[in-house]
Write a structure and sequence with these properties.
It contains 14 helices and eight strands. With about 290 residues, it is α/β, with parallel strands linked by helices. The protein folds into three domains: about 130 residues, Conserved hypothetical protein from pyrococcus furiosus pfu- 392566-001, ParB domain (Alpha-Beta Complex); about 50 residues, Orthogonal Bundle (Arc Repressor Mutant, subunit A), CATH 1.10.10; about 50 residues, no CATH class. The strands form two sheets. Strands 1-5-3-4-2 form a five-stranded mixed β-sheet, with helices on both faces. A three-stranded antiparallel β-sheet has the order 6-7-8, covered by helices on one side. The N and C termini lie far apart (about 75 Å).
Length: about 290
């Protein structure tokens, strides 16, 4: 498990955790790649394997093909971060996308930096590495942030420093996880955006509205208007005054039934008679059929 000092250091950024190797995680422009492979060594691609702690399950094949073409021309510009296992093979901690693209490109060797890390450190770095990418869905990002909070006790403030996003961005992204799973899957699949579904948080018929958004191809502003119109303004009731309370008691005494009277500011209201069995229901019917009973 990560000790408290290491956890605090990660809160200041990945550089504090990985030291000089932090360039493996943070992608920079090609102009800065000239010395990036210093300290790296090349190993056979057949000795590498994907980590069981990799939080990302879906890889865009078109994006991999594009990266593969780039690797054929320029090679792997960023070393992969790996750890060595007891069998002499290497588990990929960061860089599985580059690994897959390199295999597509037909490379037999790739540059790596070898680090000693325990399982929890591997998971943490893998999560953060993915969060620093631009191609995650909003739900994948939210799930990664939530795991860092749940499994590593990170605060939203620390996460803000790690991935370079504001605290409000972190909070709003995490809120997406309260949406129904069907809507989350829509976002995950790119059918609908986080901007479209954010107004649906807390809405009772959110799934129905999400389907309507997709069907009609609404933009975010139209979604906000749709949600606004969907919300029914609850009828404002006023606190029962002494006269109403006396009426309730009087009806209760005469009928032997629990009665509730509610009134609104516009003068309308409700009279609710509660019964507990069929006999009491029959009694209510009989009483209401007699106009001079009360």
């Amino acid at each position: 498990m990560l000790d408290s000092n290491k956890r605090k250091s990660l809160g200041r950024g990945l550089g504090a955790l990985l030291g000089e190797d932090s360039s493996v995680i943070r992608e920079t422009s090609e102009a800065k790649t000239e010395n990036r492979n210093s300290g790296a060594e090349k190993i056979s691609i057949d000795l590498l394997y994907a980590s069981q702690f990799q939080p990302r399950l879906d890889f865009d094949e078109e994006a991999l093909d594009a990266l593969s073409v780039s690797i054929k021309e320029k090679g792997v510009l960023q070393p992969l971060l790996v750890r060595k296992n007891n069998d002499g093979k290497y588990e990929i901690i960061a860089g599985e996308r580059r690994f897959r693209a390199a295999k597509k490109a037909g490379l037999t060797e790739v540059p790596v930096i070898i680090k000693e890390m325990d399982d929890k450190e591997v998971l943490e770095v893998a999560l953060v590495e993915n969060l620093l990418r631009e191609n995650l869905s909003a739900i994948e990002e939210a799930e990664g942030l939530q795991r860092l909070i749940n499994e590593f006790s990170h605060t939203q403030e620390a996460l803000s420093e790690i991935i370079g996003k504001s605290r409000s961005y972190i909070a709003n992204t995490l809120r997406l996880l309260v949406l129904p799973l069907e809507i989350q899957q829509m976002v995950r699949n790119g059918i609908i955006t986080a901007g479209h579904v954010r107004p649906l948080i807390g809405i009772e018929n959110a799934v129905e509205l999400a389907r309507k958004i997709v069907e009609k191809g609404l933009n975010v502003r139209q979604v906000e208007a749709l949600v606004k119109n969907n919300k029914k303004t609850p009828e404002k009731t006023i606190k029962a005054n002494d006269d109403i309370i006396d009426i309730e008691k009087n009806i209760n005494k005469k009928l032997g039934l629990k009665v509730k009277i509610s009134t609104s500011k516009n003068g309308s209201g409700k009279v609710i008679l509660n019964y507990s069995n069929i006999a009491q229901l029959d009694k209510i019917i009989d009483i209401l059929s007699q106009s001079n009973t009360l």
